[in-house]
């Protein structure tokens, strides 16, 4: 498991409406994200920047990456600690602030996982494992803004 890992992703702009980038309004921000053996992801810019609201934007994908990485570590730690997770849903929220000099940057992301565990499970341990998952999350360890976690644990029965 230890070592160096590589990720190959292609992004192809599909937003040339016939005039290229002749003006700021002449082109669509649409693109396709591709990786060998995986389904394509339809991408665009945030609608605030003339993007298609029906497509994923880079900001959505960053928040989703943080949420998914946290979840994967959390489920692993629960399995190791004999906490039986029966459901997991995160309603994550990211805040990006525009900056006229740099363009913008994320100020924070808050994860709000609601986790259901089997009856008899240790709710206190289940909650505490979120801090350990955060500590190990590759994506959270790679960003320069706070990633907060506000978990809610539901014990069956």
Automatic annotation (TrEMBL):
Signal peptide as annotated in the record: none
InterPro entries attached to this UniProt entry: KH_dom-like_a/b, OsmC/Ohr_fam, OsmC/Ohrsf, OsmC_Ohr_Peroxiredoxin
Identification of the protein by name: Peroxiredoxin
Pfam families: OsmC (PF02566)
PANTHER family assigned to the protein according to its UniProt record, in alphabetical order: OSMC_OHR FAMILY PROTEIN, OSMOTICALLY INDUCIBLE FAMILY PROTEIN
Originating organism: Achromobacter insuavis
Domain of life where this protein originates: Bacteria
């Amino acid at each position: 498991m230890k070592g160096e890992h590589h990720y190959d992703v292609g992004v192809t702009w599909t937003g040339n409406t016939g005039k290229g980038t002749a003006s700021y309004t002449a082109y669509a921000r649409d693109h396709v994200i591709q990786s060998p053996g995986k389904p394509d992801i339809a991408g665009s810019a945030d609608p605030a920047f003339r993007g298609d609201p029906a497509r994923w934007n880079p900001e959505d994908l960053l928040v989703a990456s943080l949420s998914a990485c946290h979840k994967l570590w959390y489920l692993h730690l629960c399995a190791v600690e004999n906490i039986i997770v029966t459901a997991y849903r995160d309603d994550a929220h990211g805040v990006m602030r525009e900056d006229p000099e740099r363009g913008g940057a994320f100020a924070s992301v808050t994860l709000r996982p609601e986790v259901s565990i089997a009856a008899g499970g240790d709710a206190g341990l289940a909650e505490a494992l979120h801090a350990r998952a955060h500590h190990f999350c590759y994506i959270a360890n790679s960003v320069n803004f706070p990633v907060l976690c506000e978990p809610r644990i539901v014990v069956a029965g």
